[in-house]
Structure formats: structure tokens, C-alpha cells
């Protein structure tokens, strides 16, 4: 389908797209037709520009006016440019070399194709061609829109949210699209901003420098001189007596001060300083940019031309008569208003400022929308966790940081370098990690401690670990979230559906990532659930009963739609994370589906047992100190207490109460003689139960009394964590 036909004095250009009607309807369904507009603009020479919309209607385009959009992300656009006979050479003028390599010029036709991938924003088609000895340029500008999100609204929200958390993280370089931005008086000036601003200002700056050199501002300057009497054109009153005294001496020299014009002014000194500073910075950044493999020959040639011009200006003899800049004692009206000087001063001021992502005249390139969406989802999850834990900013420990990615842009740190800790009163409640890479390597800086992958590396986008201490001190429940900037159509209720392969990926993560217990050198299952975050839409009531939402309750794998300004569907994710936070450990584990034939033991039962006086040395004291490793019963143990799913033990120390929780490692039988360790005494060699223990955590800050009437034979209580308050004496007196 021919989407666009442009007739120029030197050529005719046609832009095509094979399945544009499907792309348009997909974008219309996700965003709305009223948001699918683009502003088109072009350089001189066009006689007509005709756009064909999705139903084949012809629309005449006007320069710098809006019309239906035709360029979208992840779509192929074949482009044909047929030049007139007098054009001998033509090429595509992208800053990316691989884009230029997609176009070839043969028999007066320059042909190739464009696919913007996940890059959205404003872009250009630039043509460079030869007519005789003249090199001509043509630029056609337009907007590349997203089929999943509203570029004019959602993209800006994503950028604002990211920039609020991580300044400059959104920026990137060597992209095919750009965005408007405005200078800001506050903040730092990153190098990428400096380069972007100067790219817009360099020709105006160079022209201003040339104008000043040709017609500089100068001033009268007092200069000391010695002259004979016959050379004096004016006799100052200060030398009249000296002249009378030496009137007979024709060779006598008189000291006078004469006024001469000089270029050594504050403004010209500033020009010299600004030119040297900008040239040095430009040369340093140029070397770094040229090292990028994807930089095109067109871009390198432009940079070299600019640098040669700046160096040539530096060597102008004009600057030999100008001194060094030492600052301004007061504001200069010449720098602010005079021709040439005002442009130099304006450029220098802009280069010292930071930026604001508001619509402006300057170009700025950002990361692709898929990467931005992934970072934005990480920020959204962190905000929800903070809100549901009822924490303040002081309770959040941001150990995450940005890392330079090679040129002069930033990436968010991975794994341990992106950790956010959520604490209350010094107690860790949760942690959030971005893009950890789990592999067989242990304690990798980009992984998570104690998490291993015996097979191939796995790299989930977002890892949420909730700390639970109701069963075991510091037990961590791990949940995965993966942000996917994709939609696989709609279901029967009109709800956007997440991609199937992304759901399959969550199954893979849960099966591939293990926890390694280094004490026993065993692997244990780690990931409880995995969830896709995608820019879907739909009525919240329909989303709540969608298949991808119901599977979370069934198998703990599914998806949540999450897009900017969609507070209704975001509420589903908020409620889910709140449930994860509030659920007890045994409630979470009880919902885990066991392997067929395997018995899933939920560690909820515990045994409270009396610790009395014993002849075994240090027996009772070991429980008082919290380092006991063995508990043995008396000769009679209640037959009503089941042992097969008993996981925890709470010692009741007579006269003190209960305090500590122990994990039962093993239950075995021992003789009373072994238990008492009293050789030579007349002790009946009866059998006892022995519980091998490992300290888990403190149940309370101090000893708590219990209702001994609820103990079996005043010795044992067979109970659960849920029923703890039933046998405790709450109000001690």
C-alpha cells in the first residue's frame, strides 16, 4: 500500500507499508483514533505531498501541519526515491551507518526500507544528492507513534516518572528518533545535553564568531608615549613647565598619554574564552562518538567539518591582540544585546544549563520505549510496595545506582547494584531488585545472593522479595515481575491479552531459579509466582475475570495490565501486592501446588514443651541462652500428638515462660540413661523421644507466661501459630 507520495523538483519519493490497515486498526483499538496524528514538515523544493490513509483516501499535506499518522513502531516501510536525470549521486543521510546501508542507489533510484523498532518520537528522512558540483540536502520530518501507548500523553508521563527518580536515566544517543526539550537553569549539565544543544547551535555560533572577527567591538585605551616637542599635536597642561624648562633642547622627550583604539575588551576576551572552551569540549566528545561502530560516515564528515572550522577560527590573527578572560566585574550589555556577541553568550549560557523534557526547540534522544517501560514498571512496583507497607521516604534504603554505559549515557544498575530495601524500625520488610542475572556463578554482583541457576542464565526484570518472620527469622518469599512492551490482541470481552511467550517465560523462571542452602548443600525451590506487566487496557471488571488474571489464583502465574494514568487497572496490581504482604508464610506455602506423589508439609504446627530441672549438665541453661540443640521428653508422651508434620518447638521454662522458637530438625528415640547422662546411677533404661533442634528466632521481646491449664498433663501443648494467643496469658499481673 502506497502511504505517501512526495513530488520534489529533483525527485519523486514513495513510502509504502504492506499491512498498514492492520497496524492502524491495532493502534486505533489501543489508543483511540483522535490520538493518531503527526505533524509533517519538510525543506524547500516540494510541489506536492499526498498521504493515503488506511481506507485509501488521499489527503494533501501542508508544511508544519497535522495529519493522520503513517509511521508506527515495529513496522517495515519500503521507500523508493526516483531522481531526475541530472542527479548523478544520491544517498540516505542517517546518523546510523546501518540505516544508510539499507539503501542503495542504482539507475536514478535510491531504494531501501525503514523499521523503527521500539523507538518512538520525531524522526527525519534525510537525502543527500549531487547536482553537478553542488551537494543538495532534503529533510522530511514526522512523528513515529506507538501502537500500544499514547505517545503524546503516556510517553511523557513515563519520562517524567523516571526522571523524578533517576535524573538523566531516560537519555540515550545514536537513536533514530528525537524529542523536543527546553533548557533549565537548575541541575547539572551532562555531556549528552551539551552535545545535543550545540548540535542545534553550532552553525549560529560559528557565524556569530566570524561576524565579530570581521567587525569587532573596540574601545579607546590610554597608552603611554614619549615624543619630542615638534611631534606634539596637543600640549597638556601638566607638561607646560617642563616644556619651558627644556625649550632650548630639541632632543628632549616628553612623557604623554595618548588614546588609541584596542580590541582587548572584556567582550572580546570572553569570545576568546568561549571559543577555546567549546572547541576543546567538542573535540573530546567527537573522538568518543567516532569510536561508536554504528556512527555513519555522513555524521563523521559533518563533525570533522565543524571541528576544522572551529580550529581555523582559533588561529585568526584577531585573537593575538586579545588578552585572557578573567571574568566579568558586572553584566555586559554588549554581550546581551550586540550583534554576534549576544549569540555567542547565548550559546555558552545554554551549554552550561541542564534540561527539562518539555516541548522545546532542542533535540534530545531517549532510550527506546520498551526499555523506558521496563524501568517505569520497576518504579511503579517500588511505589506500590512502599505504599502498602505504610513507609516514609526515610524507611527506604536506595542502594540502586546508575552506571555509565560506555559513551555518556546511563543505565540502571543490575542485580545487587539496583537493590531497594524497605525497612521499618530497623527491621527489613522487603527488597526490590532490577534485572538480576542468575547463573551458576555464586554471589555474582549482578545476581542475588544464594540464588543459583544450574542450567542456563536467567534474567527476570523485577524481583520482589518479602521478608516474613512468622515461621522462620528472615524467611524471604520471592516473586518475579517481567515488563513486556507487547500486546497479543484482545479476548472476547475486548481486554488486551499479554504475549503467550512471556507467560511461558514465567514458567521457565519458576522452574529454573533455585535457592541453594550452603549448610546442607541442597537446592530448594525459590520462586513462588511470576507475573507479566504489559501496557494493556480493558474494563477493570472484565480484566478481573480474564484468563491471565484468574491463572494467578490457580497456578500463581499470570499478568497485570499496567499503563500510565490507568488508575483502575493499576488497583488490581495494588490489591495483589497488598495480599502478598499481608499473607502469613504458611498461608503462602499452603497454596503452592506440590509435585504429584509428594507430600507438601506446611510448617504451621508447633509443640510447646516444659523444660524442667535435669541432671544433664547445662541442659536447662542452653534453653535460657537460646542455643539448645536437643530436647527430650519424659517417659510418657501423649499419643494424641501427631509427629509426622511437627515442624517447630517452643520451650516453656518453668518459672520464666516462653520466649524462643526452634526448628525441629529430626525426631528420634533415646534411652533415659543417654538423656540424663548419669552413668552409675540406678536409672530405668526406658525410651524417650528426642527432638534435635535449630534456633529459629525469638517469638517475643521478653518472656511470656502461658496458661498451664491448657497443657496436656501440664507438660505439652500441641498447637499452631494461628492459635498462639489462645494459650498465652496476655495480661500478666
UniProtKB/TrEMBL annotation:
Keywords: Coiled coil. The lineage of its organism: Bacteria, Pseudomonadati, Bacteroidota, Bacteroidia, Bacteroidales. The keyword Lipoprotein does not apply. The keyword Coiled coil applies. It comes from Bacteroides xylanisolvens. This is DUF2357 domain-containing protein. Residues 275-302 form a coiled coil. Residues 112-348 form the DUF2357 domain.
Amino acid at each position: 500500500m502506497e502511504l505517501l507520495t512526495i513530488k520534489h523538483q529533483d525527485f519523486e519519493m514513495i513510502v509504502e507499508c504492506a499491512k498498514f490497515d492492520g497496524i492502524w486498526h491495532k493502534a486505533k483499538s489501543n489508543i483511540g483514533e483522535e490520538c493518531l496524528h503527526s505533524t509533517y514538515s519538510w525543506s524547500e523544493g516540494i510541489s506536492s505531498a499526498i498521504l493515503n490513509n488506511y481506507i485509501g483516501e488521499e489527503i494533501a499535506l501542508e508544511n508544519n501541519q497535522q495529519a493522520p499518522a503513517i509511521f508506527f513502531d515495529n513496522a517495515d516501510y519500503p521507500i523508493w526515491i526516483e531522481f531526475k536525470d541530472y542527479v548523478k549521486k544520491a544517498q540516505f543521510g542517517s546518523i546510523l551507518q546501518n540505516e544508510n546501508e539499507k539503501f542503495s542507489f542504482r539507475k536514478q533510484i535510491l531504494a531501501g526500507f525503514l523499521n523503527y523498532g521500539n523507538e518512538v518520537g520525531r524522526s527525519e528522512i534525510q537525502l543527500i544528492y549531487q547536482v553537478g558540483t553542488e551537494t543538495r540536502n532534503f529533510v522530511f520530518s514526522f512523528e513515529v507513534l506507538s501502537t500500544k501507548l499514547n505517545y503524546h500523553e503516556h510517553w511523557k508521563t513515563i519520562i517524567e516518572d523516571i526522571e523524578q527518580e533517576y535524573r538523566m536515566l531516560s537519555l540515550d544517543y545514536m537513536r533514530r528518533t528525537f524529542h523536543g526539550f527546553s533548557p533549565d537553569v537548575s541541575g547539572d549539565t551532562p555531556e549528552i545535553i551539551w552535545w545535543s544543544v550545540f548540535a542545534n547551535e553550532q552553525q549560529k555560533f560559528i557565524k556569530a564568531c566570524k561576524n565579530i572577527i570581521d567587525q569587532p567591538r573596540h574601545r579607546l585605551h590610554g597608552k603611554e608615549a614619549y615624543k619630542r616637542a615638534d611631534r606634539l599635536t596637543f600640549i597638556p597642561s601638566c607638561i607646560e613647565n617642563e616644556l619651558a624648562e627644556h625649550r632650548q633642547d630639541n632632543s628632549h622627550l616628553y612623557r604623554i598619554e595618548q588614546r588609541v583604539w584596542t580590541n582587548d575588551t572584556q567582550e572580546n576576551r570572553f569570545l576568546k574564552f568561549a571559543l577555546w572552551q567549546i572547541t576543546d569540549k567538542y573535540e573530546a566528545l567527537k573522538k568518543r562518538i567516532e569510536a561508536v561502530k554504528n556512527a555513519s560516515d555522513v555524521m563523521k564528515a559533518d563533525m570533522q567539518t565543524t571541528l576544522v572550522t572551529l580550529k581555523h577560527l582559533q588561529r585568526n590573527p584577531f585573537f593575538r591582540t586579545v588578552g585572557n578572560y578573567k571574568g566579568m566585574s558586572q553584566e555586559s550589555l554588549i554581550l546581551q544585546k550586540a550583534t554576534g556577541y549576544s549569540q555567542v553568550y547565548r550559546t555558552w549560557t545554554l551549554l552550561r544549563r541542564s534540561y527539562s523534557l518539555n516541548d522545546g526547540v532542542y533535540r534530545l534522544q531517549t532510550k527506546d520505549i520498551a526499555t523506558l517501560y521496563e524501568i517505569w514498571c520497576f518504579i511503579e512496583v517500588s511505589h506500590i510496595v512502599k505504599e502498602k507497607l505504610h513507609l516514609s521516604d526515610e524507611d527506604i534504603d536506595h542502594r540502586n545506582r546508575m552506571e555509565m554505559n560506555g559513551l555518556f549515557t546511563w543505565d540502571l544498575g543490575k542485580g545487587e547494584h539496583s537493590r531497594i530495601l524497605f525497612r521499618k524500625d530497623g527491621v527489613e520488610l522487603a527488597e526490590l531488585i532490577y534485572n538480576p542475572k542468575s547463573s551458576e556463578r555464586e554471589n555474582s554482583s549482578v545476581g542475588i545472593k544464594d540464588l543459583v541457576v544450574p542450567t542456563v542464565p536467567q534474567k527476570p526484570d523485577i524481583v520482589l522479595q518479602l521478608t516474613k518472620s512468622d515461621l522462620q527469622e528472615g524467611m524471604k518469599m520471592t516473586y518475579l515481575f517481567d515488563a513486556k512492551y507487547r500486546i497479543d490482541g484482545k479476548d472476547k470481552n475486548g481486554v488486551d491479552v499479554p504475549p503467550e511467550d512471556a507467560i511461558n517465560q514465567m514458567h521457565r523462571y519458576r522452574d529454573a531459579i533455585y535457592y541453594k542452602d550452603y549448610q546442607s548443600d541442597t537446592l530448594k525451590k525459590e520462586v513462588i509466582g511470576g507475573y507479566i506487566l504489559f501496557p494493556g487496557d480493558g474494563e477493570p471488571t472484565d480484566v478481573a475475570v480474564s484468563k491471565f488474571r484468574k491463572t494467578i489464583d490457580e497456578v500463581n502465574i499470570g499478568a497485570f495490565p499496567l499503563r500510565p494514568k490507568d488508575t483502575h487497572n493499576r488497583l488490581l496490581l495494588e490489591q495483589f501486592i497488598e495480599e502478598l504482604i499481608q499473607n502469613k508464610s504458611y498461608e503462602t506455602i499452603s497454596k503452592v501446588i506440590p509435585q504429584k506423589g509428594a507430600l507438601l508439609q506446611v510448617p504451621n504446627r508447633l509443640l510447646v514443651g516444659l523444660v524442667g530441672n535435669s541432671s544433664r549438665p547445662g541442659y536447662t541453661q542452653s534453653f535460657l541462652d537460646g542455643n539448645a540443640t536437643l530436647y527430650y521428653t519424659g517417659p510418657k508422651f501423649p499419643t494424641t500428638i501427631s509427629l509426622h508434620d511437627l515442624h517447630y518447638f517452643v520451650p516453656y521454662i518453668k518459672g520464666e515462660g516462653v520466649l524462643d522458637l526452634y526448628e525441629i530438625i529430626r525426631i528420634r528415640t533415646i534411652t533415659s540413661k543417654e538423656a540424663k547422662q548419669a552413668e552409675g546411677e540406678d536409672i530405668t533404661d526406658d525410651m524417650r523421644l528426642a527432638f534435635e533442634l535449630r534456633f529459629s528466632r525469638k517469638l517475643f521481646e521478653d518472656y511470656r507466661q502461658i496458661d498451664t491449664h491448657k497443657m496436656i498433663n501440664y507438660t505439652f501443648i500441641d498447637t499452631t501459630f494461628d492459635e498462639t494467643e489462645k494459650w498465652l496469658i496476655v495480661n500478666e499481673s
